[in-house]
Amino acid sequence: MRSLGPTIAIGVWWALVSLVTASLDYCCVDMIASAKAPWMQFTKELSSQEFSVTNSLKSLHCCAKGYRSIEWYKDGKPYPWRRDVSNMILYPESANQTVYTHAVTARDAGNYTCIVRNDSSSISHTIHLSTFDKAGYVDAPLPTYQLANEQYAKVGSTVRLFCEAFVGHIDLPDAKNQVEWIRLGENQTLEGNERFSQKQISREDGQIIGKYLEISSVHRSDFGNYMCTISNSGDQTIQLITTLREEEWFSMQVADYTDWGWMVFLVCSLISSILIVCLVLRRYCFHSYG
């Protein structure tokens, strides 16, 4: 009988390659709707906290578009980093949106900041990485994405809510990682309504799980409180709550614009147009009455 050693080794290698590829291609899927717009912006909900067990694969993401460069800093130190600062390296196939390591260590913990730049402006985001120096994580889930207290949508539009947490691995026969969105006040799941769709996601070999709740053709009756529940066993659960409110058609916040260059261009164009009109009128008046 032929040895199964080479076959098992190939299978393990292929599983590892698939895991790494899925983790590093994170920015290519599930982008927000506004990512279709041409200006520079972040294209996904970005985590503010990340967690990892030592000696496991870990990647950090800064998903964006419309930029010329992305710069990474760890605790204020620019990339590339010495080994005593961080083992993280850039994943070039992601256009510098991702840094990763195959085996995270305690010294990799800290604040990682990405600065995304184009010719006229920049945006930045910071992620705090914590590590656990033990074989596995067995405590309550830890949120990775900071769910806003309030979110806004216009009637008739589509809105997406998102929650995510680090759950680790619990080696118990009845342990099951779960994540679910419900509408508070309704005290029920959102199944059965074709305008509501949920999509569960996982990364880092299932150690991080999350779920998107997308509401299409928003009705006024959809506004209210929504809760995301994440659990990794029967008694280890976190509940994250957000309030969906109506965005009035006339309300426009400057903070909604992620690319100040476009605003500067529009303002300068308007001022130039006004000056040209004034000069033309002045010359006309001068010739008419001069």
Shape: flat
Counting H and I runs of at least 4 residues, what is the number of helices?
2
CA-atom Rg in angstroms: 24 Å
Counting DSSP E segments of at least 2 residues, the number of strands comes to 19
**Helix residue percentage:** 10-25%
Q: Could you give a short account of the major beta sheet?
A: 5 strands, mixed
Main structural class: alpha+beta
**Beta-strand percent range:** 35-45%
- What is the terminal-to-terminal distance? 109 Å
What letter string, H or E per element, gives the SSE order? HEEEEEEEEEEEEEEEEEEEH
Q: What are the low-pLDDT stretches, counting only 5+ consecutive residues below 50? A: 4-22, 250-259
Task: Round the mean pLDDT to the nearest integer and report it.
Answer: 83
Strand order of the largest sheet: 2-10-9-5-6
Can you give a write-up of this model?
The protein has 290 residues and is an alpha+beta fold. 17% of the residues lie in helices and 36% in strands. The chain contains two helices and 19 strands. The chain has a five-stranded mixed β-sheet with strand order 2-10-9-5-6, with no helix packed on it. It has a five-stranded mixed β-sheet with strand order 12-19-18-14-15, with no helix packed on it. Strand 9 (110-117) and strand 10 (122-132) form a beta hairpin. The radius of gyration is 24 Å and the shape is flat. The N and C termini lie far apart (109 Å). Mean pLDDT is 83; it is low at 4-22 and 250-259.
